[in-house]
Amino acid sequence: MDNGQAPILSVRNLKTYFYQDEGTVHAVDGANFELHAGRTLGIVGESGCGKSVTARSVLRIVERPGRITEGAIMLRRAVSGGQTDELDLTQLDADGTLMRSIRGKDIGLIFQEPMTSFSAHYTIGNQIIEAVRMHLKLPKQQAREHAIEMLRLVGIPKPERRVDEYSFQLSGGLRQRAMIAMALSCDPSILIADEPATALDVTTQAQILALLERLQR
Prior knowledge:
By secondary structure, the chain is of the alpha+beta class. It has helices spanning 51-59, 97-105, 114-117, 124-136, 140-153, 159-162, 172-184, 202-216; strands at residues 9-20, 23-35, 66-78, 84-88, 107-110, 190-193. A hairpin with a 2-residue loop joins strand 1 (9-20) and strand 2 (23-35).
């Protein structure tokens, strides 16, 4: 417990295995942790130890032949009337309406490599606007203004112009900032950052980590 408050995310004995012809890979084998509101939780380990699979398990986006075989992922979230409910994400249909609504709205994700996260066929703005319209139900023009404001919030210069650019037109640092803007655009209560600065130079890394700390506050 943390200051008497229940955690907003509780992972209990999580096991995510990959079943292959060569054998079973125990990518995540009994993970346990809790996340409290306003706090930062770091998961560290060597390459290949299951950090990204843990993040993907929470969001229910583990690719086949991987699947969660055991454990619980308990999410506390606000509902109407100022009440909260608790859901075990492992019991939800990964492709169902409820789980899709949780991704982005309740839990945001900053991928390790933003170049592969953004579609090259749509502008940065279009992709942020689509998420905002789906989760926040804003009209198109208001959603566009919100997208521009999010790009401004993460320190992207001239956001009114950048909103109509494609990911390949941006530098690595700006792409990562745009990825953060999209992850935060629907005001999620939890943000999962999967090595958000690993592909950036050390100066940009420091800027990105400082930005995340400022946005958390």
